Amino acid sequence: MDHTLLKPESTPADVDALAAEAADLGVFSICVSPSMLPVDVPEGVAVATVCGFPSGKHHSSVKAAEAALSIAQGADEVDMVIDIAAAIEGRFKEVEADIAAVRASVPDGKILKVIIESAALSDEAIVGACEAAVRAKADFVKTSTGFHPAGGASVEAVALMRKTVGDALGVKASGGIRTADAALAMIEAGATRLGLSGTRAVLDGLDGVVVEDAGDGGY
């Protein structure tokens, strides 16, 4: 689970509290806005950030520079937003080039996740965007920013994303996952990472439930 705080009004004190809570919750990482980096985290907790967020309507060179700065400031993972319109219109070579530009700024050993904003896409566009992410050598595809009016993650989108990428990439479900039942449904559909802002409530709901571990940390 990525314990997430991306509200525009978040303060350094809020981020410090998020980091302190991470060890208690046993999450994989915290995910914060790039302007909040660097951040101290407990040992064993990774730091994730976002790039081109939330619209994706940034020049690829700007996304690449943002990703590079985030890595230099201690981020272990970068969650980038694609140009959603390019995916909607089927311009998947442009989507691939956008991802590849950021990939070049995220070195080996660091994780690149690609947010496709699945609720805004047709099934065909979801498949095309995921295939572009595979070709550009991303590590994950991710459903949503959580900020788009079309909505967040859905079981159907996660299942289609998993079917498309197979075992080549991880699948992160994020956006609107607020209950244990919703989290388990995403995992059953093929999600290997969850992005949650209400992490404690979800974990409380999972108390006593045995969930098979993906086992590799990265995926």
Automatic annotation (TrEMBL):
<feature type="active site" description="Proton donor/acceptor">
    <location>
        <position position="172"/>
    </location>
</feature>
<dbReference type="InterPro" id="IPR002915">
    <property type="entry name" value="DeoC/FbaB/LacD_aldolase"/>
</dbReference>
<feature type="active site" description="Schiff-base intermediate with acetaldehyde">
    <location>
        <position position="142"/>
    </location>
</feature>
<dbReference type="InterPro" id="IPR013785">
    <property type="entry name" value="Aldolase_TIM"/>
</dbReference>
<keyword id="KW-0963">Cytoplasm</keyword>
<keyword id="KW-0704">Schiff base</keyword>
<dbReference type="InterPro" id="IPR028581">
    <property type="entry name" value="DeoC_typeI"/>
</dbReference>
<keyword id="KW-0456">Lyase</keyword>
<comment type="pathway">
    <text>Carbohydrate degradation; 2-deoxy-D-ribose 1-phosphate degradation; D-glyceraldehyde 3-phosphate and acetaldehyde from 2-deoxy-alpha-D-ribose 1-phosphate: step 2/2.</text>
</comment>
<comment type="similarity">
    <text>Belongs to the DeoC/FbaB aldolase family. DeoC type 1 subfamily.</text>
</comment>
<dbReference type="Pfam" id="PF01791">
    <property type="entry name" value="DeoC"/>
</dbReference>
<comment type="function">
    <text>Catalyzes a reversible aldol reaction between acetaldehyde and D-glyceraldehyde 3-phosphate to generate 2-deoxy-D-ribose 5-phosphate.</text>
</comment>
<feature type="active site" description="Proton donor/acceptor">
    <location>
        <position position="79"/>
    </location>
</feature>
<protein>
    <recommendedName>
        <fullName>Deoxyribose-phosphate aldolase</fullName>
        <ecNumber>4.1.2.4</ecNumber>
    </recommendedName>
</protein>
<dbReference type="InterPro" id="IPR011343">
    <property type="entry name" value="DeoC"/>
</dbReference>
